Amino acid sequence: MPLTDLMAAVSTQVLAAADRDSTLLAASRLLACREAGADSLFDSLRERERVGSTAIGHGIAVPHGRSPTLQRPRGALLRLRQPVDFGADEGVDLVFAMAVPEHYTHQHLMLLSELAELFSDAGVRQALRDAPDAEALQQIITQPPQAPRG
Hints:
- By secondary structure, the chain is of the alpha/beta class.
- It has helices spanning 20-31, 38-51, 106-119, 122-130, 134-142, and strands at 9-15, 55-57, 60-61, 64-67, 74-84, 92-101.
- 39% of the residues lie in helices and 25% in strands.
- α1 packs across α2 (38-51).
């Protein structure tokens, strides 16, 4: 099932970020909606990072948090112009931030698993890094390139 079918919205952005907090702030603004404000989402994302880095390797981080006001999960994909430090051995240049309703437990883990599977594909990672703009990022996340079968 496409990731975008599992979420109320997935926003995308290409940006220059100076550090992890400015990246999380940009992500929280993309995640924000009438139900959940950017400030509370930023706090939730930062709190999760304090527990441990959400970097998963290959220059990717998946910061995630919860909101008691959300009804459905929301996502934000950011491609950074330069890698930033997310507390991992390597810099991060691809960030998929996610906010889920407070009551999501199993679903939260399933979404994280879907993201890990998506980002394990080298072709998807390269396509995201080569994408010229937010619209191209949206297209890739909506319809990831298929790996050649052989």
